[in-house]
Write a structure and sequence with these properties.
Blueprint: E1 6-8, E2 11-13, H1 18-21, H2 42-69, H3 77-98, H4 112-134, H5 140-171, E3 177-182, H6 185-197, E4 203-210, E5 224-225, E6 228-233, H7 237-244, E7 248-251, H8 259-268, E8 275-278, E9 290-295, E10 298-303, H9 311-345, E11 351-357, E12 363-369, H10 402-409, H11 417-423, E13 427-429, H12 436-439, E14 455-457, H13 459-462, H14 470-483, H15 486-502
Parallel strand pairs: 3-4, 3-7, 4-6, 7-8, 13-14
Antiparallel strand pairs: 1-2, 5-6, 9-10, 11-12
Length: about 500
């Protein structure tokens, strides 16, 4: 899936590197003249792979369900089930298309890809059910309650595996979109740093435009920012985009960008097919809280308040209670075995209880398996803290028992927290449950972590856990509080399985 040259109407074309692009005369690419987008070969190939995987999942699921569960009592059962099967396949694929589940803008990153896939399958199920009511058919129940859930069980893992393969390629420097950043030096520098820290998002900043065409090292048109060449000034941005063939033009904050200039830039980029992305001031607000609407001819970015109650929160409560009950039932033999191992490995209680702070600042007792020797807190004064911020962490803590080390490695010590979820003091997904002494030093913005229940897992769990700096851990928790959704919870739960298996940041 590496980047390759893509054909254009003039033959094979590769995006020119910035130093060569700057040497070309602007007349070669006049502003306003349409030309084909510099799309790398991996982009349509990846999209075809996703579409094909969904088609295969749909056809295989419908075929298997029809053959295994199709009623054979009537004389024309084969004709009936073929018609219903073909109708189901066509309806599911049309629903995915209408819900833009294959849009290139969401493939490969973000929870929106899985959200659109889920909405597409749900819409198909609703239409099938309504069709069954309209034609008074009881046969449709098989396709609504068996076939479509089977499609989901196949398509979601397939999408995830394809995304993992894409992310692996991006970490190797392949399948990346060339980006030109246009803004102040500070905002451009911040965006460059973020893209390098998260290569799986698919952006590679290859050029920068600033107001005066200068970067860190000085010199008009020849300076750099974080090792990325500054190719020119903001007023010449459209020409640089067409010369270099960049796929994304990221507009960062700068006093130069007035509404009129942004509008003129959008006009000048028409026909180039380069995607223009404007970074809003609200850097940490995203997802379902952002809505774009036109008022009096002006595009307005509406920011809705975070949702801390309502129907979705009721669904989350139900999922927490039912999910934790099912998990306790499944893991009860493992919990019994772990309890016996702890008792035989060292003296002390099986469970470790600790006061934590939950929703709205209310304290509760969090339950974990004991992983340290008895009275471990008395030995803490002689140890050096390797953790970030107020958290005490050591990679090789001498107080941890042999069984405790294994439990921490695979996060098995947190299984008893399912009792906290059932009791309502915790959630399956949420911010990390803080200690009372931590919350005493919280700034007003950090206290927003306490607006929701703490979770057994969260963005901090799937992003590195103890390897994260304290500030990054807080930022992730606040991001979850601000941008929470049921889809985000589902994605976090799915990623938690991989985080637990790999043991990254667990010690």
């Amino acid at each position: 899936m590496g980047e390759q040259a893509s054909p254009t109407r003039h033959g094979a074309h590769r995006r020119l590197p910035p130093h060569r692009a700057r040497s070309l005369p602007p007349a070669l690419l006049p502003i306003g003249e349409p030309r084909q987008a510099p799309i790398a070969a991996w982009e349509p190939r990846y999209r075809r792979s996703v579409v094909l995987s969904d088609v295969i999942a749909t056809v295989v699921s419908v075929t298997v369900v029809g053959l295994l569960f199709g009623a054979r009592g009537s004389a024309n059962w084969q004709h009936l089930w073929v018609v219903l099967g073909v109708t189901t396949v066509a309806l599911v694929l049309c629903s995915l298309l209408m819900n833009r589940a294959w849009s290139p803008n969401v493939l490969g990153h973000g929870a929106d890809e899985f959200g659109r896939l889920g909405r597409g399958l749900f819409s198909a199920a609703v239409v099938l059910a309504l069709g069954g009511l309209a034609f008074d058919s009881t046969n449709i129940r098989l396709w609504v309650f068996v076939a479509i859930p089977t499609i989901a069980l196949l398509s979601f893992p397939q999408r995830y595996l394809l995304r993992r393969f894409l992310h692996k390629s991006r970490k190797e420097g392949k399948c990346l979109l060339p980006v030109l950043v246009a803004g102040s030096a500070d905002t451009a520098r911040d965006l460059i740093t973020r893209t390098r820290q998260t290569p799986h998002l698919g952006w590679r900043v290859e050029a920068v435009c600033t107001f005066d065409g200068r970067g860190d090292s000085g010199g008009d048109g020849g300076s750099e920012l974080e090792g990325v060449p500054v190719v020119g000034r903001l007023k010449d941005l459209a020409e640089h985009v067409r010369r270099g063939g960049y796929r994304v033009v990221a507009i960062a904050s700068d006093p130069y960008w007035t509404p009129r200039r942004l509008q003129e830039l959008a006009w000048n980029l028409e026909g180039s097919e380069a995607e223009m992305v404007v970074a809003p001031v609200l850097m940490e607000v995203a997802g379902p809280r952002l809505h774009v609407s036109a008022v009096l001819g002006m595009p307005l970015l509406r920011v809705s308040a975070p949702v801390f109650s309502g129907a979705r929160r009721v669904v989350k409560e139900i999922v927490d209670r039912v999910g934790s009950g099912l998990l306790l039932t499944v893991f009860s033999p493992l919990i019994l075995v772990i309890s016996l191992l702890i008792m035989t490995d060292s003296r002390g209680a099986v469970f470790y209880r600790q006061r934590r702070v939950g929703k709205d600042g209310r304290s509760f007792t969090m339950i974990k398996f004991r992983t340290m020797v008895k009275d471990a807190h008395k030995l803490r004064g002689n140890l050096a803290n390797e953790g970030s911020g107020p958290l005490f962490k050591m990679r090789k803590d001498p107080r941890v028992t042999r069984v405790g080390a294994v439990l921490r490695r695979y996060s098995l010590d947190e299984l008893p927290q399912l009792f906290n979820v059932i009791s309502g003091s915790m959630s399956l997904v949420g911010p990390r449950p803080p200690l009372p002494e931590e919350t005493e030093r919280y700034a007003p913005d950090v206290r927003r972590r306490l607006l929701v229940k703490p979770g057994m897992t969260g963005l901090w769990q799937v992003s590195g856990r103890s390897d994260l700096p304290w500030e990054e851990s807080v930022r992730l928790d606040l991001r979850y509080v601000e941008d929470w959704s049921l889809t985000l919870d589902a994605v976090i739960l799915w990623k938690t399985v991989r985080a637990v298996v790999t043991g990254q940041g667990a010690y």
